[in-house]
Amino acid sequence: MNYRALVLGSEGFVGKHLRPYLLDHGWEVLGADRHSPEERTDHFQCDISDSEQVEALFEWAGDIGCVFHLAGITFIPEAERDPGRLISNNLVGSINVATTLLRRVPSARLINISSSETYGMPRSLPIDEEHPLWPRNPYAIAKAAFEQYCSMLRNNKNLDVVTIRPFNHSGPGQRPDFVLPSFARQIALIEAGRHEPMVTVGNLSAVRDFLHVDDVVRAYELAARQAPAGETYNVCSGEGHSIRETLDRLRDLSRVDVEVKVDPARLRAIDIPAFCGRNDKIARELGWKPKRAFDELLADLLEYWRARVTEGQVA
């Protein structure tokens, strides 16, 4: 296998964890992102919704063995505010990537990072890979559509693609728009005396399947090395935790007492009560299991935001 990888969305939350992990495991790594914070010879600035820029990207990248496709809008409320922009970025952009890859480097593997959001409202729990897809928001619709497009390219043109459906995952560096870093950031600010002792929350009763980002990038790299072409894998813990439980555990880790206030603006119009996956397939076929405990994830998040507050990097 050619261990020269191109990471799309390399400057995003997961991309910044994946790149060093790949380097530590013997890969040569190139990165591409819509925004480039600095001049780097291993990085290409590219808007994947522009087909000409994607052509230029693959010309620059040259002979690569694998593309890890992390690019696109990931925050669902943002996707719902502007679904046209979401489709342009996440679906049209992804089609540009797949078709250009197949034409320029037909032997390369595509690790298509889809989402558990494609399953929609669960018919049964825990969810395995055979569960029907029933996307309920623009983000999930784009992900499901691109899965179908990849399947078509696999069947008609032998695209080497492996699809991953990650469930909720978090860790240091994730935007505070998401639930776990939002809680950790608020608590860190309260501890520093920069916020009233009140954590603002949305729906606390929802149950979700959370993973540490370290386990997620390990699954992506393992799939690139070992997964048979055309396969689809859930990446999940197999355990459900209520949002209330996550907040209670973070409050236990806090150095101060904090109260809780529900903000109606944080409540989603369509919210699935419980959502958790099965990881039997990836465990059986690739030998992957989560290594980082849920409490480690929460502790890492809180320490990350404490450091950011101390360093004056949080407004």
Kindly describe this structure:
There is one protein chain. The protein is globular. By secondary structure, the chain is α/β, with parallel strands linked by helices. The chain has a seven-stranded parallel beta sheet, with helices on both faces. It has ten helices and 13 strands. Helix 1 packs across helix 7, helix 6 crosses helix 10 and helix 8 crosses helix 10. Strand 5, helix 5 and strand 6 form a beta-alpha-beta unit.
Features:
single chain; 315 residues; alpha/beta; 7-stranded parallel sheet; two-stranded parallel ribbon; 10 helices; 13 strands
- Cα(first) to Cα(last) distance is 46 Å
Q: Beta-strand level of the residues, as a percent range? A: 15-25%
User: Main sheet: which strands, in order across?
Assistant: 3-2-1-4-5-6-11
Order of helices and strands: EHEEHEHHEHEEHEEEHEEHEHH
What is the subunit arrangement here? single chain
Indicate the low-confidence ranges by residue numbers.
none
Helix residue percentage: 40-55%
Q: Could you tell me the radius of gyration in angstroms?
A: 20 Å
Q: What's the total helix number? A: 10
| Mean model confidence by pLDDT | 95
